[in-house]
Write a structure and sequence with these properties.
Number of strands: 0
Keywords: Membrane, Transmembrane, Transmembrane helix
Structural class: mainly alpha
Order of helices and strands: HH
Transmembrane segments: 20-43
Largest sheet: none
């Protein structure tokens, strides 16, 4: 298996880190940023239409 991976330029001792963990961390940062923006948007909308004013 390691011979097959090395043919494609993938070292077997870095496979899990480079192929799975790093891309998942980048994708999760993208989704977290989108989620935070959505929360702030809902909070801002609620503050405008509610009785209380909330400064963001």
């Amino acid at each position: 298996m390691s011979y097959l991976l090395s043919a494609y330029g993938i070292r077997s001792h870095h496979t899990l880190e480079e192929a799975v963990v790093f891309p998942l961390c980048l994708i999760s940062l993208m989704y977290i940023g989108s989620f935070i923006l959505k929360i702030l948007s809902v909070w801002s909308s609620w503050a405008e239409h509610g009785d209380r004013q909330i400064d963001i």
